[in-house]
């Protein structure tokens, strides 16, 4: 006999506990109605049975700041995210070399030693996180923000933009199989410089600019301090040199959606604490960490902390808090260093976005860049509302409510950064965004990732 899921039972319990208060019933009804009409349930013995190939997601009411889980509770896409050793980026012409152990990234799946491949000074191999092709649907209905995803297509869904390649056109069901990648990839680590000019080896970043765009490249490998203090333009070129593309708006949006649905929150700092609290005069030499502090987590999510890890990461040991985190293998998915986000440009608070397989360019506001038609706020603050596509709609909240992360802005032509840095405290987080920098901005706390 089928038994009630924890999701359904939580709704039923909530209804029983709140029947005396009609206003509470209205709020609960939003989530329960969507839950029961989602197409995820089959009824057996009067109880719900779930099909994990069908869509699942969440509903966030941005007035009441309440969350409801929609559909089944099995994160089928997230469960298939995994670290893999690659040559280049397989989505853009590279290839998969070998998958890493699910619980220890110093080993391959077969148990053999992977150390020389995950920390590859020769610059031949990289470590990426592979995400399987999925179908998504994000929309708003008043204050209700709906996020749906599935490993299989569903009514109203379409192939997520992170998987769409050149020539993609909607065939009528939100897909175009001939022009879609079966996987998308996000670098497991922040970008490390391979010095092809002098040493022909990966080198530690110094917090100073100076890469040679003709010979050098940025890759994802463990054991080196990230290369910072380059513009978004230089980062783009250096990653292209390694056979990939700079981290972009589409992969960022997919990563953010995966996290929100899995953890049923936008508060990434509470769910997976990050390196954000080093607020006492932090600097590059003493406090920026080497990549790979989360190798022992494998594909699991979690954090690394303590002065011993601070020393192991190349610091002076003077900080004992969290020094790295990982979401499903993506190390420092927020915090530590601000990350450039490509494929999106801002002009006077309006965003222009291009496809993942288009040619990325800063300060471009013509095809293939297309206006979002949305004007973002012209004041800094904690985000209180976002559009269905994660553009900032309003500020005026706090670090403990609504989106929980900060938004910085500036007028004229701007580019985008995400995540916040090691000294940004409560302002940092997965949803933290800054459109206050130009395409010529350099700083020791700004990094590119593949």
In short:
This protein has 450 residues and is an alpha+beta fold.
Report on this model:
This protein is of the alpha+beta class and 450 residues long. It folds into 2 domains: 6-71, no CATH class; 189-450, no CATH class. 16% of the residues lie in helices and 28% in strands. It is built from 8 helices and 26 strands. The strands form 6 sheets. Strands 18, 19, 20, 21, 22, 23, 24, 25 and 26 form a 9-stranded mixed beta sheet that branches. A 5-stranded antiparallel beta sheet has the order 4-3-9-8-10, sandwiched between helices. Helix 1 runs antiparallel to helix 2. The longest helix is centred in the N-terminal third of the chain and has 15 residues, at 22-36. It starts with 5 loop residues before the first helix and ends with a strand. Mean pLDDT is 91; it is low at 1-33 and 41-48.
Write the layout of secondary structure elements.
Elements (H helix, E strand, L loop, with lengths): L5 H13 L3 H15 L4 E4 L2 E4 L5 E6 L4 E6 L10 E6 L7 E5 L15 H4 L7 E7 L2 E7 L2 E7 L7 E2 L23 E5 L4 E4 L5 E3 L13 E3 L12 H9 L8 H15 L4 H4 L12 H4 L14 E4 L1 H6 L9 E6 L2 E2 L6 E10 L2 E4 L16 E6 L5 E6 L5 E4 L10 E4 L3 E6 L14 E5 L8 E2 L3
Parallel strand pairs: 18-26, 23-25
Antiparallel strand pairs: 1-2, 3-4, 3-9, 5-6, 5-7, 7-11, 8-9, 8-10, 12-13, 12-14, 15-16, 16-17, 18-19, 18-24, 19-20, 21-22, 21-23, 24-25
Helix pairs in contact: 1-2
């Amino acid at each position: 006999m089928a038994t009630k899921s924890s999701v359904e039972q939580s709704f039923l319990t909530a209804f029983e506990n709140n029947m005396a208060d009609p206003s509470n019933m209205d709020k609960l009804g939003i989530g329960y109605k969507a839950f029961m009409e989602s197409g995820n349930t089959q009824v057996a013995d009067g109880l719900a049975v779930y099909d994990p190939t069908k869509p699942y997601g969440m509903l966030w009411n941005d007035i009441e700041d309440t969350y409801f889980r929609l559909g089944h509770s099995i994160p089928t896409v997230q469960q298939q995210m995994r670290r893999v050793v690659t040559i280049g980026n397989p989505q853009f012409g590279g290839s998969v070399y070998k998958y890493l152990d699910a619980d220890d990234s110093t080993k391959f799946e077969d148990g053999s030693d992977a150390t020389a491949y995950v920390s590859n000074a020769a610059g031949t191999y990289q470590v990426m996180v592979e995400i399987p092709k999925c179908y998504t649907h994000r929309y708003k209905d008043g204050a209700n923000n709906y996020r749906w995803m599935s490993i299989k297509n569903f009514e109203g869904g379409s192939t997520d933009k992170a998987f769409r390649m050149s020539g993609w056109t909607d065939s009528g069901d939100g897909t175009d199989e001939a022009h879609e990648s079966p996987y998308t990839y996000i670098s497991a680590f922040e970008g490390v410089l391979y010095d092809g000019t002098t040493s022909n080896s990966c080198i530690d970043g110094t917090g100073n600019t100076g890469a040679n765009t003709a010979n050098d490249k940025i890759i994802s490998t463990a054991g080196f301090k990230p290369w910072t203090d380059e513009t978004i333009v230089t980062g783009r070129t250096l990653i292209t040199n390694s056979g990939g593309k700079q981290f972009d708006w589409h992969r960022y949006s997919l990563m953010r959606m995966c996290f929100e649905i899995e953890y049923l929150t936008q508060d990434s700092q509470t769910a997976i604490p990050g390196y954000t609290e080093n607020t006492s005069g932090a600097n590059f030499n003493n406090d920026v960490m080497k990549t790979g502090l989360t190798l022992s987590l494998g594909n699991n999510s979690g954090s690394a902390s303590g002065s011993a890890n601070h020393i192991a990461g190349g610091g002076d040991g003077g900080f004992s808090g969290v020094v790295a985190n990982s979401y499903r293998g993506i190390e420092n998915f927020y915090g530590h260093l601000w990350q450039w986000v490509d494929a999106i440009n801002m002009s006077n608070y309006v965003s222009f976005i291009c496809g993942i397989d288009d040619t990325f360019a800063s300060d471009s506001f013509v095809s293939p860049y297309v206006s979002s038609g949305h004007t973002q706020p012209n004041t800094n603050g904690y985000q209180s509302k976002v559009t269905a596509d994660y553009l900032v709609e309003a500020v005026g909240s706090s670090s403990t409510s609504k989106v929980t992360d900060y938004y910085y802005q500036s007028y004229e032509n701007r580019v985008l950064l995400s995540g916040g840095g090691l000294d940004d405290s409560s302002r940092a987080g997965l949803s933290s965004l800054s459109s206050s920098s130009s395409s010529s901005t350099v700083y020791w706390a700004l990094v590119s990732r593949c």
